Amino acid sequence: STMFVNHYAFYDTETTGNKPTEDDIISLGCVLCTYNGHQFEKLDEFHSYVDTDRKIDPAAQAVHHISKQMIRGQPKFPEMMKVFRTFLMQHQTSPHTRLIFIAHNGSKFDDIVLYCNFVQQNLNFDMFLRDVHCYGFLDTLKYLRVLFKECQYKDKPKDASTGRESFALGHCFTSFCGGSALEGAHDALV
Length: 190
Hints:
Structural class: alpha/beta
Strand order of the largest sheet: 3-2-1-4-5
Radius of gyration: 17 Å
Number of strands: 5
């Protein structure tokens, strides 16, 4: 039997708004890792801003702090995806390398906005997935909800300011990684 080599692309997007089927990606960050059975080991990282003609919703900008000035002159989506595809492909060490995309809340947002940006730009998503040997998409938010379902309140991730249970990435970080608030939590690469 063939031994597959799994690569994990932890990725995040920042967008012009909060509607994944309509909005444009203006920033994409990815940390490519392997897993050695105990922990993830970083292979490489990727980040790009993306220029778009669509206006950035002020509510979205208040969250990610990306302005039109920051993206002006950056690659448009098709160019950025070409570079991203090359980045992912250069790490395919063998024909048996499989790539798994992982995003927090990806199934409700990032995976959808990625697909919709492909469709809107008349790009072939299936071809991209084939080229990078994509084996699937995982959503860490879904897994955390399942993992902590049976836990007592004291062990669940919380919003430190309200004490309410929260599976937001920043709150998971402060709850489990002992860090103070995730600086730049809405910077795609962070």
